[in-house]
Design goal:
about 15% helix; OB fold (Dihydrolipoamide Acetyltransferase, E2P); 5 helices; 18 strands
Length: about 325
């Protein structure tokens, strides 16, 4: 038996028999009926176990002359199942409307041993994992107060994990580690539901966009909009919707990611960056190297308009601004005019 390809082995893994069909890819079974061979392929495949009923899949018939080709395919598979996410368009939804696993990235089984907050967990092997693509309110540290909905987000994540006895599927993003040594990953429950999407559905998180980890950007933003429209969780707070007014500056207690809105007073340019200067000495910084991720955007035309931006606040005072938000994807900007 050859090992799964592009995977890691963790101590507490989900048995193959419990995997949803979407996680694997292999041909399943052949059966002879007179002069016709019936071949069943499960959705995205998995080896059918003796004594079990195969999942519904694409069932088709082939004539005997093709039997040799099919036999070769099965031999190449050799009983090995590549534990790799199925090939789907990046950021797309699957047939259930959930955020499909990103294509071409390795998948592994794991068990969560501790929930730090709404977007960070520790695995049983000691790895710390930051849920990529979302940000939840911060739990207060060193005597600081919790941000609104911080504990609710933590509890929502715990409740989701409890549904599977803390078992998850882990898919590391394209850039798989942050500056703190945490893995940047998408988490899925064994039944295939995206944990990031589930938190967004409940209004416990906002979507954030940091290249190159934009695999699910479109889908996560869609899930967030539904919660925002219903004023769920954090979206009942003005700091999130419509966002912090830049005219008042950024409150000192704001740390990490935020949503800021304001009128564009000017648009400037330096050797490396484009600077969108909002009222209140708040700027949005776009690296020129990232301009391909802003198709159709004419930044100079933004002057006088109201812009909403999201990202991590950087406190940096100079002659032009006191705060700026670096953005590297058009997903992080919204014209409100």
């Amino acid at each position: 038996m050859c090992p799964p390809l592009a995977t890691r082995s963790l101590p507490a893994s989900v048995p193959r028999a419990a995997w949803p069909s979407r996680w694997t890819s292999s041909a399943t079974a052949t059966a002879r009926r007179s002069k016709t061979v019936v071949v069943a392929f499960l959705p995205f495949g998995r080896a059918q176990q003796k004594g079990t009923v195969g999942l519904p899949g694409a069932l088709f018939r082939v004539r005997r002359p093709l039997l040799a080709v099919l036999a070769t395919m099965l031999l190449v598979a050799g009983g090995c199942v590549a534990e790799e996410s199925p090939q789907r368009p990046p950021g797309g939804m699957d047939g259930t409307g959930d955020c499909a696993p990103p294509s071409g990235l390795a998948v592994e089984s794991a068990t969560v041993s501790y929930v730090n907050d709404g977007d960070t967990v520790r695995l049983s092997n000691g790895d710390r994992v930051r849920l990529v693509g979302i940000d939840t309110p911060e739990i207060g540290r060193d005597g600081a107060a919790d941000e609104p909905y911080a504990r609710e987000a933590q509890q929502a994540l715990r409740a989701l994990l409890a549904e599977s006895e803390n078992r998850v599927r882990v898919i590391d993003a394209t850039e798989g580690e942050d500056r703190y040594g945490r893995r940047l990953s998408y988490l899925y429950l064994p039944d295939g539901r995206s944990i990031q999407a589930q938190l967004l559905d409940r209004g416990m998180a906002m979507a954030v966009f940091v290249a190159p980890n934009l695999e699910l950007a479109d889908c996560l933003l869609t899930r967030e909009r539904a919660a925002r429209d219903d004023d769920l969780g954090i979206w009942s707070l003005s700091a999130y919707d419509p966002g912090l007014p830049s005219a008042n500056g950024i409150p000192e207690q704001v740390q990490g990611a935020a949503i800021v809105r304001g009128r564009v007073e000017s648009v400037g340019e330096s050797r490396r960056n484009i600077w969108i200067n909002l009222e209140g000495r708040v700027a949005v910084r776009v690296d020129k190297a990232d301009l391909e991720r802003f198709p159709g955007w004419d930044f100079e035309a933004l002057e006088g308009e109201t812009l909403r931006a999201r990202g991590w606040i950087v406190h940096h005072s100079n002659r032009y601004q006191d705060w700026f938000i670096p953005v590297d994807s058009a997903h992080a900007l919204e014209r409100l005019n």
